[in-house]
Amino acid sequence: MGYLSGKTVLVTGASSGIGRATALAFAREGSRVAVCARRVDRLKDLERELSEAGAAAVRSFALDVTKRADVEAALTGLPSEWSGIDVLVNNAGLSRGLTKVYEDDPQNWEEMIDTNIKGLLYVTRAVVPGMVERGRGHVINMGSTAGYITYANGAVYCATKAAEKSISEGLKIDLMGTAVRVTSIDPGMVETEFSEIRFRGDTERAAKIYQNITPLKPEDIADAIVWAASRPAHVNIHTVVMTTIDQA
Ligand code: NDP
């Protein structure tokens, strides 16, 4: 039996891309996998795939991480067999537009800040006290290389991922003396629905992002997450930075 077998894992934003691949990777390790996102129809299909992949147990539920009261209600109201979360993957996130700050629609900033920063904080706030109390747990936050290098027309998205870095480091310091670990996973370009969402369904513009490069696959990131989560309990992987070989 592997380290993650029978562990309870919660993945936010599991309806597509990295979150979905991560949930499946934990399922293959024999973990108990809980998944959430707003598109519950997709989660229903994923539930079946998780069971087929070997998950010890599966649960899915609707969650919009930007809604603080809903996050608190959903996570504090989990049935007892699911409330002992061992691994939290704070993956839900998005980018909106690729626009100059002084020309952008403030609605785009709000969506990114509410999801990537506040959503991550709400979920963390609801889950981590239980980890501290039980004396075990691992928070894995989805960062990005955008948290290190600000790219053209991406100021606010990059700022949200720089914030993720500060929050991950700060949480690690706050948790010193407990058994709870904190890891930030920081990928470069990954081929998911991310670019389509960013351009509000403009697939042509989204495809141009990956021109002349072979992007990472969601499974590459899922591998890194499962690797970090499966280190022995005294080992904390702070950060994993990974890019496609075509990206500087
Ligand atoms: P996808 O668009 O494929 O997946 C994003 C996921 O986040 C979806 O499952 C979506 O579910 C969920 N989500 C978005 N908003 C909310 C919300 N308010 N509440 C709950 N869930 C939400 O993109 P990726 O898989 O690429 O993105 C996953 C993470 O990886 C993000 O944090 C992103 O910033 C990060 N990342 C992505 C990179 C890339 O190049 N693709 C590079 C570096 C980091 P639903 O819409 O059903 O709610």
Name the features.
single chain, 248 residues, alpha/beta, Rossmann fold, seven-stranded parallel β-sheet, 9 helices, 16% strand, globular, binds NADPH dihydro-nicotinamide-adenine-dinucleotide phosphate
List the helices and strands and how they pair.
Layout: E1 8-12, H1 17-28, E2 32-37, H2 40-53, E3 57-62, H3 68-76, H4 80-83, E4 87-90, H5 106-134, E5 137-142, H6 155-174, E6 180-187, H7 194-198, H8 203-209, H9 218-229, E7 239-242
Parallel strand pairs: 1-2, 1-4, 2-3, 4-5, 5-6, 6-7
The chain binds NADPH dihydro-nicotinamide-adenine-dinucleotide phosphate (NDP).
Give the number of helices.
9
What is the H level of CATH, i.e. the homologous superfamily? NAD(P)-binding Rossmann-like Domain
The percent of residues in helical segments reads 40-55%
The CATH class: Alpha Beta
By helix and strand content, what is the structural category?
alpha/beta
SSE sequence, one letter per element: EHEHEHHEHEHEHHHE
Radius of gyration from the alpha-carbon trace, in angstroms = 17 Å
Number of strands: 7
Profile the largest sheet.
7 strands, parallel
